[in-house]
Amino acid sequence: MPEANKCRICFNETDNKSYSIREMQFGTREEFEYFECSHCGCLQIKSYPEDPGKYYPDDYGLHNVTKTGKPGKLIGWLREKKLKHVLDDKKSLTGFLLNLLIKPGFEQKLKPAGVKSDSSILDIGSGAGKILLNLRNKGFKDITGTDIFIDNDLIYDECLRIFKKELSEIEGPFDFIMMNHSLEHMPEQDEVFGHLRRLIKPGKMIMIRIPVKTDYIWDMFGIKWGSLDAPRHFYLHTQKSMEIIAARNKFSIEKVLFDSGSYQFYSSEQIIRDIPLRSANSYYMNKKSSLFSRSEIRGFVKKAEELNKNHQGDCACFYLKPL
Fold first, then answer.
1. Model confidence pLDDT, tens digit, residues 168-198
2. How confident is the model over 270-298, as pLDDT tens digits?
C-alpha cells in the first residue's frame, strides 16, 4: 500500500491533489482515486487494482488481431525496397518513388532511433502484435514482442514471435526497444527502466510512446481527458516527470516527438457528455452515429498538429539512450 499521495516518480508528498476519475472506456463508470504531484505534475493512481487483468477484455486495444498473413512476393519486395530507402540509406529509384507515392507509416517513428531494416526489435506490451505484424510485412525480420495479457505465446514465423512473459523473463540484448502505450500500464516504473537497461545494446536507443499530461490538455479537460483511461493507466506522465525518472535510471532523453491526434478531443468531448468510448454512438466505434461532423474532426486534426508543434499535444514519443 503506497504512502498517502507520495509521488512514486519524484517522491514529493507536499500539496499533491486528489481526484476521483471514472472508468469511461467501457462505461462501467466505476470511480478510482488518482493524485497529481505538485512538483513533477505526474498524475497517478493511488492504489493499484488487485486484479488488473479483469479490466482488459479480449477486445481491448492491441489484443484483437484478425489479419496475420504475409504480403505476396512482389508486394513484399516493394515494401522492403521502400524500408531500406527510408532507414538504411540504400537509395534506389524504386524506393524513392514508393516513398513519394505511399504515405509514411509507423516505421517513421523508428527513424530517430537509428533503426535499420536488419535491427533486432523488442516491443514491450505488444498485445497480439498488430503493430509488429505491420512492421514484419514492411520488411523487418527480427521482431520480438512480450505481453502478459495474451493467452499464449504467438509464433507467427521466423521473423516475428510474441511471448506471454513478464519483462524479467525476456533475454536480450536488442538493437531497439519500444513501448507503445504500455509504460503507463506498469506499476513499478523504476523496475521497468532497470530491465530496459539490461535489454538494450550499448549505444542503442529506446522509444517510449505514452499519453502526456500537458498544461493545455489538463487545463482544457481535467478529469474528463479521454486518455486518462482509469484504472488501466496507472501513470499519466508529464515531460518533466519523464525527465526525472529517466535521469534517475541513467538514461538521457535524446528527442521528444509529439504525435497526438484527434482522439484527445473527441474522446474528451464525449466524456463531458457522458458517452463512453466503446458505446454505439461514439466516434471511436461508429463515425456515422457520432455527434461530430466531418468538419469538426478536421478541426480536431488541425488543432492536434498545432499542439504537437508546440509540445502541447497529449501523446509523445520519448527517445532514450543509456548513459
1. 999 989 999 999 999 999 999 999 999 999 9
2. 999 999 999 999 999 999 999 999 999 99
> What is the Cβ-side half-sphere exposure of residue 91, based on CA atoms within 13 angstroms?
1
Q: How many residues does the chain have?
A: 323
Single out the residue of 295, 272, 269, 299 nearest to residue 284, CA to CA.
269
The pTM of the full predicted model, rounded to 2 decimals, is 0.91
Beta pairing class for 121-124 and 143-146: parallel
* C-alpha cell at position 199: 535489454
* C-alpha–C-alpha distance, residues 37 and 3, integer Å: 13
Residue 219 phi, psi dihedral angles, 5° rounding:
-65, -35
pLDDT at position 102, please? Answer: 75
Count of CB atoms situated within 10 Å of the CB of 303: 16
Q: According to DSSP H, which parts of 2-91 are helical?
A: 73-87
Does residue 66 carry a pLDDT above 90? no
Grid cell in block for residue 137: 510485412
Calculate the dihedral angle through the C-alpha atoms of 305, 309, 311, 314, rounding to the nearest 10 degrees: 10
Cβ pair 113, 174 in contact under 8 A: no
Tally Cβ neighbours within 10 Å of residue 116. Answer: 16
How sure is the predictor about 1, in pLDDT bands with cuts at 50, 70 and 90?
very low
Is residue 7 within 8 Å of residue 44, measured between CB atoms?
yes
Tell me the angle at which helices 93-101 and 73-87 cross, rounded to the nearest 10 degrees: 90
Q: What order of strands is seen across the sheet that includes strand 31-36? A: 17-22, 31-36, 43-45, 235-236
Single out the residue of 193, 194, 200, 141 nearest to residue 175, CA to CA: 200
DSSP 272-313: HTT--TTSTT-TTT-GGGSS--HHHHHHHHHHHHHHHHTT-S
Q: Over 70: is that where the pLDDT of 236 sits?
A: yes
Secondary structure class of 129 (helix, strand, coil): coil
